[in-house]
Amino acid sequence: MKCLTRLNLVKVLRAASLGVAAMLTLGMSAAQLDAKVMERKISVGGTKRSYVLYLPDNLSARSSWPVIIAYHPALGTGQGMADITKLHQTAGDKFIVAYPDGFRRTFNAGDCCGVAEKRNIDDVGFFKAMMADIGSMAPVQSKAYLTGYSNGARMVYHLVCNVPEMVAAAAPFAATRNMDNCKSSRVPVLHIHGDADEGSPVDGGYAQSGLMKNSLGYMEPAQSVVSRIASRNGCASGGATISESGLGNSICKRYSTCSGGETILCVVPGLGHVWPGAPAGSKRFGPARPDLNGSRAVVNFFLRH
Fold first, then answer.
1. Which of 35, 133, 171, 265 is the most exposed place for a label (fewest CB within 10 A)?
2. How far apart are CA 215 and CA 250, in angstroms?
3. How far apart (Å, rounded) are the C-alpha atoms in residues 238 and 260?
4. Rounded Cα distance, 245 and 108, in Å
5. Is there a contact between 271 and 196 (Cβ–Cβ < 8 Å)?
6. What strands, in cross-sheet order, belong to the sheet with 47-54?
7. Ordered domains of the chain (ranges, CATH)
């Protein structure tokens, strides 16, 4: 599979200006961070990795905390993902929230992306190490709640495929991944995708927008991937159209009689390759829907599981 070159990734980032372009690099001093926020640095197989961690004020109030891990898009940062999604604000005192930094700002999702894939960086190992590191500071549940955007969404699916026993629920946005040859454990999934996304077309195929055009290889249709997840989760082929808080007029199909985990596909009308609720940016990434709140939909889904 072809991957974005570093030069093209830089150009894509500069063109974005939808929040990805505004993502901050880490390295900020403790004084610049809120009291509940810290930058963590760990070593995974000799490779230095980092993530931004948001801890609730009331850590002593629970004997076991659920953890949300939110993966950024290619050439983003953990702090940038926090700025775009504000998941830690939506989660409030209900979750610990972590925002990992990709290796050279990309994650190795097995079939993508960038330098992380090219160098076969162990991002599954990074996930496990993050959970252990967070667990050294607070009592945490053994399974994490995962969400991600673009390359980050592929990373979420990569973890669902390879370590489902460590995933409580997943909510990927704006990317798919081949889910053949995965472990058989069942994981609740909420997949969100814009119907105007040309960077990762909801109906599958190749990227059609700007510098991303034809550079990411073939992407499976969202419907096919979620149907495969639904089958693994013991769902019937049919389902009901529902509404998800925060996603407005989105067309959401919840598969029926799922014995192994709730499975939902939400297609958002008029949304491009832009997080639901984020402001409009470069036209190359398609239209935005600032009237929505994707983070609310994600957190509400996680609270159900």
1. 35
2. 28
3. 16
4. 31
5. yes
6. 37-44, 47-54, 96-100, 65-71, 140-149, 167-173, 189-194, 263-268, 251-255, 239-242
7. 6-303 (3.40.50.1820)
Measured between alpha carbons, how far is 176 from 223 in angstroms, rounded to an integer? 10
Per-residue pLDDT of the chain (305 residues), as tens digits, is: 334 444 444 444 333 333 343 333 333 333 234 448 999 999 999 999 999 999 998 888 899 999 999 999 998 999 999 999 999 999 999 999 999 999 999 999 998 899 999 999 999 999 999 999 999 999 999 999 999 999 999 999 999 999 999 999 999 999 999 998 999 889 999 999 999 999 899 999 888 765 566 556 788 999 999 999 999 999 998 899 999 999 999 999 999 999 989 999 999 999 999 999 998 877 778 999 999 999 999 999 999 99
Q: Report how far residue 255's alpha carbon sits from residue 253's, in angstroms, rounded to the nearest whole number.
A: 6
Please check whether residue 92 is in contact with residue 56, taking contact to mean a CB–CB distance below 8 angstroms. Answer: yes
Q: Does pTM top 0.85 for this prediction?
A: yes
Tokens of 187: 């994981």
Beta strands in 129-184 (DSSP E): 140-149, 167-173
Q: Which residues contact 237 (CB under 8 A, 6 or more apart)?
A: 227, 230, 255
